[in-house]
Amino acid sequence: MPDENPPKIPFFDRVMEKANDLTTLTIHTIVGEFSLSPDQGTLKATADTSNSEEMFTRIDLIDGDITTALNAKFMEDQYQEIRKLHMEREKNGKEIIQKNLETLEKIAETLVSIMNKKPSKPSGSSE
C-alpha cells in the first residue's frame, strides 16, 4: 500500500513558497534620496518621497500583467536616459523571470524523479 503521507522535503517546500517570487519581478528606479533595509534576507530600497522621484514596474509572468508607474516629471526630456535605463531593466526582467520559470521546472522535474525512485537493493543482497 503506498504511503499516503509522502516524506516532506524541506527544499521542495521552500521552492514552492518562493514560487511567487520567481514569477513576479519588481523594478524600482529611484532618483534622489533612498534607504536600504533588510526585508526577509534581501535588501529593499525605499524612496524618501519628499526628496526623490521613482519609477516602479511590477511584472507578473503568470498573469501577463506589467504595471509601470512613474512621476510625470520623468516624462521631461532631461530624464530620457533614466527612462531608457528603466525600460531596459524591464526588458531584462522579463528574461530573468523566464529563466526562473525554466529553472523551477527543472527543479520540480528533478524532485519528482527523486521521489519516484525506488530504493536500490544493497549489493550482495539476495531476494
What would your notes on this structure say?
With 127 residues, the protein is of the alpha+beta class. The protein has one domain. It has 2 helices and 3 strands. It has helices at 10-23, 80-116; strands at 24-39, 42-60, 65-70. A 3-stranded antiparallel β-sheet has the order 1-2-3. A hairpin with a 4-residue loop joins β2 (42-60) and β3. α1 runs antiparallel to α2. The longest helix is centred in the C-terminal third of the chain and has 37 residues, at 80-116.
Task: Give a quick set of tags describing it.
single chain; 127 residues; alpha+beta; 2 helices
Helix-strand blueprint:
Layout: H1 10-23, E1 24-39, E2 42-60, E3 65-70, H2 80-116
Antiparallel strand pairs: 1-2, 2-3
Helix pairs in contact: 1-2
Mean pLDDT: 76
Instruction: Please work out how many helical segments DSSP would assign.
Output: 2
Derived structural class: alpha+beta
**SSE pattern, N- to C-terminal:** HEEEH
Strand content: 25-35%
Gyration radius, in Å: 22 Å
- Approximate helicity band: 40-55%
Strand order, main sheet: write it out.
Answer: 1-2-3
Low-confidence stretches: none
How can the largest sheet be summarized? 3 strands, antiparallel
State the separation between the terminal residues, measured CA to CA: 20 Å
Count of separate structural domains: 1
- The 3D shape can be described as elongated
Q: How many β-strand runs? A: 3
Summarize the structure.
This protein is an alpha+beta fold. The protein has 2 helices and 3 strands.
